[in-house]
Amino acid sequence: MKENDHVIAFARKLVTITAASALLLSGSTGAFAQAAAPQGADTQSDAFNFPSDISFLSQSDPNIRRATARVNGNIITGTDVDQRVALILASNEGVQIPADELQRLRLQVLRNLIDETLQVQEAAALDMTVTPDEVDEAYARFAQQGRNMSVEQLGQYLESIGSSPRTIKRQIQGELAWDRLLRRNVAPFVNVSEAEVSELYERMQESRGATEYRLGEIFLQSTPANRDAVNANAQQIVQQLREGGSFQAYARQYSQATTAAVGGDLGWIRVEQLQNPQLEGIVGEMLPGQLVGPVEIPGGFWIGLLIDRRQIGMPDPRDATLSLKQISINFEPGTTQAEAERRGNAFVAAIDSMNGCGDANAKAAAIGATVVDNDEIAARALPEALQNVLLGLNIGQSTPPFGDLQEGIRVLMLCGRDDPPTTAGPDKRQLMSQMEDDRINKRAQRYLRDLRRDAVIEYN
């Protein structure tokens, strides 16, 4: 595989996670990136011997700093920040962001641009420069496969929202550079023994039938000194998410976990991997689609989204393929309540008299009902309320009537069901790859911290 396939194929490989591991690059350490956050912050700060009463000699508010910087001589302009922010605002689909929240967003975008610049500079210093042709090729692939657009159409769209192709190409360049650095400077020095894999495989076989959770996370690091400010920021993020903001977009720009690169997606994990009894209890009670947080944990604040849940090694009933008949009647405009009730009662009586799907069409026609067939619909594709009812039906049974005077009344009749096959789960080869990814991720975090520490950064 070519290195510049990272944006599509390699990134997809990196986001794989099971009970064995967390994500590479775009994953978390252990199971959540808070494992990489400062632990025992009070003890660590003791080494600086801070006075109990801190008085600043001059006032400096980073929130009013103009979002431009020079990183080891390379300039990040205000336009760079503006165009990246425009992408995020567009992804929020019209959700209004308050002025103070927008200012925090700009600062976070600047931090992300600094990291990308450091990654590109490090690759160039080690003779692993990402060429413009590689970036253009990945950009074209992103336009086609990621946005279903031509390069020209994507460019026009980006300009219409106040962004530009340059800002996406800059991000692609950073991702390709970082991928290249990790492939050469980190991955070759990571080893996982067969004994470790065998032990984990045996534990997973013993846990067959246990519940796994697919989680999204946003993690904000904090210290005792900035705890209140970080908590307020986390509260603002949760409020925006509850008002319809994109979880992936906020995770990409605000989260300080390495899962930020994939919108905070942790993949499939078991609660034991969280290594935090508080979070284990919270996640175990969550329902798919539920947002929780901010939760204060060692090192910072955590915001979680339960994307889905399943049982290890067991088929998910929602993956069943159903054969359905939709039988419905409509009400003409001006239909009285009494007439609607009469027709509704006749409809229900006709449904009750049907002997399965074989005579449904004839009896539906007798009362003027419409029948629509769908022989290959996944249960998961249906609204959750219908999923629960249909998965409890036998062949030939129908759901209770649903609808109203405007939409009409309908039922769904189950005519067939193909259950999903039992899944065996990951084999030992897959587990070894996932464990290696986890260890690469831990070293990647240290690598990026070292680049930040050694950088010369001048803010304007």
UniProtKB/TrEMBL annotation:
SUPFAM superfamilies: FKBP-like, Triger factor/SurA peptide-binding domain-like. It comes from the Bacteria. One of its GO terms (molecular function) is peptidyl-prolyl cis-trans isomerase activity. Residues 1-33 form the signal peptide. InterPro entries: OMP_Chaperone_SurA, PPIase_dom_sf, PPIase_PpiC, SurA_N, Trigger_fact/SurA_dom_sf. The keyword Chaperone applies. This is Parvulin-like PPIase. PANTHER family: CHAPERONE SURA. Residues 210-308 form the PpiC domain. The keyword Chaperone applies. Keywords: Chaperone, Isomerase, Periplasm, Rotamase, Signal.
